[in-house]
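Hi all, long-time lurker, first post. I run a small reading group and we've been trying to get comfortable going from sequence to structure in the token notation. Rather than ask abstract questions, I figured I'd post a concrete chain and ask someone more experienced to write out its structure so we can walk through it together at our next meeting. Sequence below, copied exactly:
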Amino acid sequence: MATRWGICSAGKISHDFCVALRTLSPNDHEIVAVAARNLQRAEEFAKKHNISRAYGSYDELAKDPNIDVVYIGTIHPHHLTASKLYMKAKKNVLIEKPLAMNLREVKELISDAQDNSVFLMEAVWTRFFPVIIEVRRLLGQGEVGDVQLVRADLGAPLTHIPRLAQRELGGGALLDLGIYCLQFVLMVYNGEKPESIQVTGHCLNTGVDATAVLVLQFSGNRLAICTCSITMKLTCDAVIIGTKGTMKVPDHMWCPTIFEMDGKKTQFPLPEAAMPLNFTNSTGLRYEAEEVRQCLLKGLKESPGMPWAHSSLIVEIIDEARRQLGVTFDQDSI
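-- Answer (accepted) --
Happy to help. Here is the structure in token form:
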């Protein structure tokens, strides 16, 4: 039986997610409803993606009994309230990253998932790309030896996009881009908490972080360096340096199709999209969707590939980075 998806928000990322779902078997994944805060927008989205039901409010989607899981593609500050609505209605949820605005909100979401006995996963799609699965396999086999340093960079000039530049929209480099760098580091270091976090950078006059450089020290003098920016183009790659070799995920480390081991490249091509996409390599969203399906079939409440502990630690590090940079959101004072 197909996993029945409801889509919360008719924005750009929801469009790409639906296109990605169409690259999977309709016997496994079915999009049954979409909700937006405006009915006309929901109906236009439904027509474009051949979705049978369109709702002009998130509440209506929550009340639909024929949905297994809701994909939440709203902007960052709305993740908490939308997710709580669906979990209270006993719906499983896949929430776009970042899971929430700060650690307090993430803990609240996890608590709600436990109270309602539903599946909850942060949509860190990178974790489920074939390239990253291969990285994890080789790390597990000890191909690079003992890891000594992880470096991950992600940045582009994006200050013209309001949701990235405006404080009230949950903007800043850390929440939107830094999360990709940090999830990669924590994947390599198996979710270990760093012993120290040192951060430098600068902010926009809107109050959000423009560029941040994080140096994390882990036990045994292992290091990680993460750089994220919404004001400059960075290398957008990730490197793992060990005692026996070096692994590299080149440009597009957040949605990778190429992997290097000691200079030897291997490609993992993505399926073609049936309609234009808003973001790079978005058909790769299919992998996180399939992860959700497999978890639901097994009766799991969290994904082994992106566990709650990793989501919590990522945002805990981002909270500390924001503290050191002087970035605050209204959600911090609640």
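A couple of things your group might point at:
Residues 308-325 form the longest helix (18 residues).
The longest strand covers residues 209-218.
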